[in-house]
Amino acid sequence: MLSEKMVEIGRKRSAIRELFEYGKARAAEIGAENVFDFSIGNPSVPAPKEVAETIAELLLSRDSLALHGYTSAQGDMGVRKSIADSLNRRYGADFDMDEIYMTCGAAAGLSICLNAVCVPGDEVLLLAPFFPEYKVFAEKAGAVVRAVPPLGDMSPDMEAMAELISEKTKAVIINSPNNPTGAIYSRGCLSAVAELLSARQREYGHAIYIISDEPYRELVYGERKPCFIPGLYGNTFICYSFSKSLSMPGERIGYIAVPRSMEDSRTAYAAVCGAGRALGYVCAPSLFQYVAAACCDLSPDLQAYIRNRELLCTGLRELGFEFVEPDGAFYLFLKSPEEDAEAFCMRARKHELLLVPSDSFGVGGYARVSYCVSAETITRSMSAFAALAGEYGLGG
Amino acid sequence: MLSEKMVEIGRKRSAIRELFEYGKARAAEIGAENVFDFSIGNPSVPAPKEVAETIAELLLSRDSLALHGYTSAQGDMGVRKSIADSLNRRYGADFDMDEIYMTCGAAAGLSICLNAVCVPGDEVLLLAPFFPEYKVFAEKAGAVVRAVPPLGDMSPDMEAMAELISEKTKAVIINSPNNPTGAIYSRGCLSAVAELLSARQREYGHAIYIISDEPYRELVYGERKPCFIPGLYGNTFICYSFSKSLSMPGERIGYIAVPRSMEDSRTAYAAVCGAGRALGYVCAPSLFQYVAAACCDLSPDLQAYIRNRELLCTGLRELGFEFVEPDGAFYLFLKSPEEDAEAFCMRARKHELLLVPSDSFGVGGYARVSYCVSAETITRSMSAFAALAGEYGLGG
């Protein structure tokens, strides 16, 4: 007599978590140094020192009741102002603090936005490959999920998208830099998406929202920078998290931005407040609201990720593997030398390489390699990758 | 094309929040010292010094990646063990860490439990007077809410409850010490509830859950102590928050306990995990998980609340007001001298006394007085209460 759906979601670990748990068990068996665990997207670069300094300073300077007390449901006013100012400075945006709503991380932000816009029977489009939890959040909000297949370069197939959008479509989730590919969608690609959605909004006479999941926005290594999507398409919610940029994923702090460019933006902001309230969020954790405000201009120390990306790309290329060129985040999307990605990942596992098969991300034939590990792990894993390549007769 | 329901919930502030905002505006107008704001349940006693000490020590002793990293979804293993041990020590319970699930406060806990057990069309019973957000959380989980009216002493009318329970009833929310009355339900009362629910479970052939919301469990001032409800009734979820006991409501940290005594308790625990995941909770804030574990045996400094309760009860009694004797929490439920509680509270407002009319708590004819304020505020408010009493010809 429990909710069968919730039991199922609680019992069935994600493929990522499953592999991560296997990795921990395997490490206990044969030693952590002998397991090459590329399963999970946990930052490997410590939080900037300013995080600890800010906490220490807040403990000294602020009254306990103010520091640990409830903030208003949408977040402390000063915090929202700092974040709006930082966005305006860095992205040439024009946010006001009343367009910012503080959340318990991006997952909460996504769940809140989906519940704010969806009613049962609505449809939500995901661009494959996509982070598997999107489906869980969207379905809990009462929506039916449709996956847009990718082209060969992992950008969305616009023709397929045009066919999948219908009068029932309420939102499209976009994630750039992308998990699992590390790719940044080009401006051209996003403009095409914006154009298609704009046309359909007019045709159907109702809004179709982009929900832009941007936890990796600051983890960018090459020439390409992520687009500021509200600049292309007004009806865009931004869901941000400080999990990756400040390396504090456990602290659950982020925000939703509801730009004025959105149709009925104050009503949309009210819907966000309503969904946050109804789901039990009350307010985002107060101490870390203040930490986020103080540290929101900081960039993470990207050198370690840049070095890892270089080591991994060079090594895998030399071994004859193919992959999507990663622009950001800390993921590399490796083409499986055989069609069945699960079989490939099982074979990799025999060499103690833990890779996530792409099937749960909504496409077949790839494996996600999370390179938020030590450089040494990557270097030492190369002989295992070489043996794996050998099994498929890659490289030469 | 947004969710109308979420827009409505986002726009319509709770009566409590509404009054609190009025109080802030009024304070700006005539000076904070001239407004007697008894509207909100925000702790007025600072967090125990051990909270700041623990944070400082964690910053020094723990690696940043471990301190701020994801914990497992159900909470850090060591944290759950500490909390289970503390419950066992203090309540003679027998919890194992696998029965504890860390949450972003009690509101998240309630929302998660309701979503874990309810499917659309189920009914949830609330015992009036009740905290108004219960209705918001239960309805969002797809349930229909039924309110059990109270007897004159504000304990539940068991006959009415027997009539309201039906085959659709999935859960009953119990809150003792109670918000808004401050009353603790007697063992006799809870035994009667347990007996009634047990009989109906047998009759209908399915579980009916008690969801026990216990944020005020440690804020108890008299002889009466709250019952350990799983000892009376197996199918009980406990939702706890450290908001009041450690005076850190903004930090959003608490837990759900799913006792082994529950039918299919592992399945129920899985449903809790599933609902937490589907609602976007990921994990409870990591640093404050460790703080809660280190401080979970601490009692708040109750002296200030005890003194406030004494001052308020004595003062109001002398003026001829009637009220429910408060056993705990920091609320006093004042009988309105006229039938219309809203009219009474408007009249009180003319004397700068901000009291919450009882209507949104599901009963008429009372006003909630939150005495988590300075003792000075209470002392100084007495002339305003005297003038108000005078208008009704109380006391003589």
Describe the protein in words.
Two copies of one chain form a homodimer. Chain A has 396 residues and is of the alpha/beta class. Chain A has two domains: 4-48 and 301-391, Aspartate Aminotransferase, domain 1; 49-295, Aspartate Aminotransferase, domain 2, CATH 3.40.640.10. Chain A has 14 helices and 13 strands. The first copy, chain A, has helices spanning 4-11, 15-30, 49-61, 64-68, 77-91, 105-117, 133-140, 158-164, 187-204, 265-278, 286-295, 303-318, 341-350, 375-391, and strands at residues 36-37, 100-103, 123-127, 144-148, 169-174, 209-213, 236-241, 254-257, 323-324, 331-335, 353-354, 356-357, 366-370. Chain A has a seven-stranded mixed beta sheet with strand order 2-8-7-6-5-3-4, sandwiched between helices. Chain A has a four-stranded antiparallel beta sheet with strand order 9-10-13-12. A two-stranded parallel sheet of chain A has the order 1-11. In chain A, helix 7 (133-140) links the parallel strand 3 (123-127) and strand 4 (144-148). In chain A, helix 3 (49-61) crosses helix 11 (286-295). The first copy, chain A, is globular, with a radius of gyration of 21 Å. The termini of chain A are far apart. The mean pLDDT of chain A is 96. The interface between A and B is large, with 80 and 80 residues.
